[in-house]
């Protein structure tokens, strides 16, 4: 409920600070006194676009702040989704700066207008002539019926299921599209994969292969150089090994003369041993050296294949070719298994479709069950509101395709007078009739769900007498479970309020100001008497006012 409203520097309002209670709050005032200004300020808090022309004094900022008690509303999840701190006493503030820019805050956290609208729709509902047009819209009509049918959980489940269903359909469409593309690529991918498989990449050591090629390709030069090196080492009398042995004998003769000479002898012995090993290794290499043109050709062919693959796939490592082979095989497998994947996806869609149909059927059954109750209640209230011949018909028809809230189409049909035929509500109901129908529907909704605070803006326009009294009774009944405001010109309705505020204008220093005052008991009697008989209050008007208020 709205507990307080603060307005500063807005239109004709210098500063206004007012508190509200639960129940039925009446707001009255002469035409042009500024009731629309009050609504305009409240609308800014609810997310209406602001402009600088609404600021009373351009040099100062305009502030509108509303405090709501939201304990009875389950809004914690909404606050979380908007990334806001939840507080039972929630404060919404709008500021219009001198520059014309506007700022919005929820519990002192800056927010966008989208966030403000998302929250405020749960807090207060300003009912005007414009809003009655909602009655003719499918979304609102479904909202009414589903509220009475207690379909909220079913609709949430359906919405989640429909989201999954649409994602599955989209995924299937992508699969079928990709199938056509993959089939085009399949033969080429298979060719590339076979080409990579033939060379057995996992068993290739490129470095060893290149070394083998170099050896076989240069066998004559290798043999010649090995033979030459062997001659240098082992030529009789002149070879390096014989020379080393001679040096070893000479050093042995002085080795006993000191450690340095002993060390030289040991080092020359070590060199001799190493050269003997080198000679043996040369002999072994010579013995194993052979010319194999066929092996050379095989290795050369393999190296050419590898290098061609490197060039074709723009890589330089065997590991890269192996990775490409794995990727190609994956694409081939995907193509070969795509029909099964599509079949599996189609089965998922069938299951999701079946589940959605079950939920939609449950939603539809609940709607069908509650429609006669709704029509009966609505016609009874409309009869009290001076429309005894009004008849309502709600057509609920199944649709072939899923819609966002099930699998039904809905139409409110209306007949105002006997002898006429049912027609669409927007074509057959006048503005005044729509206002009364909306009031009746809101009163019915209040029995089933927790509605936000509601402000009726002159909903009683065009009615009087007993009908206005009935309208007041309906609003009074609604206020037993919710906060109701009504702006009215009718004394019969004004007398029904738990509290009464008057909007009026005053002129101070040739400047007009709008003010709002809460009336005490005596002031209410005077106000209702003036509503009955005009500014000149008679004894009978006072007596009638007291009678209405009692």
Automatic annotation (TrEMBL):
InterPro entries attached to this UniProt entry: DNA_recomb/repair_RecN, P-loop_NTPase, RecF/RecN/SMC_N
Pfam families: SMC_N
An example molecular function term from Gene Ontology annotations: ATP binding
Keyword Transcription among UniProt keywords: no
Coiled-coil annotated spans: 165-219
GO cellular component: bacterial nucleoid
Domain RecF/RecN/SMC N-terminal intervals: 2-506
Record key words, sorted: ATP-binding, Coiled coil, DNA damage, DNA repair, Nucleotide-binding
Gene3D superfamilies attached to this UniProt entry: P-loop containing nucleotide triphosphate hydrolases
UniProt superkingdom: Bacteria
Keyword ATP-binding: yes
GO biological process: DNA recombination; DNA repair; SOS response
SUPFAM superfamilies registered for this protein in UniProt: P-loop containing nucleoside triphosphate hydrolases (SSF52540)
PANTHER family hit by this protein: DNA REPAIR PROTEIN RECN (PTHR11059:SF0)
Protein role: May be involved in recombinational repair of damaged DNA.
UniProt similarity note: Belongs to the RecN family.
NCBIfam families: recN
Protein's name according to its UniProt entry: DNA repair protein RecN
Species this chain originates from: Winogradskyella pacifica
